[in-house]
Amino acid sequence: DVKVTQSSRYLVKRTGEKVFLECVQDMDHENMFWYRQDPGLGLRLIYFSYDVKMKEKGDIPEGYSVSREKKERFSLILESASTNQTSMYLCASSYSVSNQPQHFGDGTRLSIL
Amino acid sequence: RKEVEQDPGPFNVPEGATVAFNCTYSNSASQSFFWYRQDCRKEPKLLMSVYSSGNEDGRFTAQLNRASQYISLLIRDSKLSDSATYLCVVNGRGGTSYDKVIFGPGTSLSVIP
């Protein structure tokens, strides 16, 4: 079974802090994704990566950056956290973007105070 | 028109009922289709892939209609444990450097005793 592990289930940070969310997958997947999910807005893609050191902006990249130094690890960084970044963050990975499903981690519920 | 649309529901059905969800997509070049289920405050989990010939997994049947650009999910003999939000996912050529993955907004199902 594919295992996607997110570093924290719940996280509370303060406005202006730099926040790191970590994600690790154990299936040697090429592609990794970061989403946020908010009530009534569904899943929105923040960034994704199709290879080590490669990244592509998703639909809502503003206020975020990412890092993929190793194939199995994809980090999401909130450069200066703001209250509107309070959300559920979901990491996913897949073998192929075009015809393989994505597998999700448990999610990180992030609160910015 | 949104790229992937679903009836948000909620669908409230009694145990044992048959219920069907549709999902329409706008990009005729889309190539791969999936159904996910998401329980409250949990991550989306792959339910099944949708093949051109249709596929069945126990009480669940998925079908694809390329001509009308929709996929469907049929649940027979509904169980209380089927209560969840069902997300359709469409992968397809996005016209950019990557194949685009689009999650529908989800359809909420409540199975009532």
Ordered list of secondary-structure elements with their pairings:
The complex is a heterodimer of chains A (113) and B (113).
Chain A: E1 4-6, E2 10-13, E3 19-25, E4 31-38, E5 42-49, E6 56-57, E7 64-70, E8 73-78, E9 87-94, E10 103-104, E11 108-112
Parallel strand pairs in A: 2-11
Antiparallel strand pairs in A: 1-3, 3-8, 4-5, 4-9, 5-6, 7-8, 9-10, 9-11
Chain B: E1 4-6, E2 11-14, E3 19-25, E4 32-38, E5 44-50, E6 55-57, E7 60-65, E8 70-75, E9 84-93, E10 99-103, E11 107-112
Parallel strand pairs in B: 2-11
Antiparallel strand pairs in B: 1-3, 3-8, 4-5, 4-9, 6-7, 7-8, 9-10, 9-11
The profile of the biggest β sheet of chain B is: 6 strands, mixed
Number of strands of chain B: 11
Average pLDDT level of chain B: 90
State the share of residues found in helices of chain B, binned by percent: under 10%
**Strand proportion of chain A:** over 45%
Cα separation of the termini of chain B: 37 Å
What order do the helices and strands of chain B follow?
EEEEEEEEEEE
Number of helices of chain A: 0
Using only CA atoms, what is the Rg of chain B?
Answer: 14 Å
Q: Separation of termini of chain A?
A: 36 Å
> What profile does the largest beta sheet of chain A have?
7 strands, mixed
Helix fraction of chain A, binned, reads: under 10%
Query: What is the succession of H and E elements of chain A?
Result: EEEEEEEEEEE
Mean pLDDT of chain A: 93
> Which regions of chain B contain 5 or more consecutive residues with pLDDT less than 50?
none
Outline the low-pLDDT stretches of chain A.
none
β-strand percent of chain B reads over 45%
- Assembly context of the chains: heterodimer
Number of DSSP helices of chain B?
0
Helix and strand content put the structural class of chain A at: mainly beta
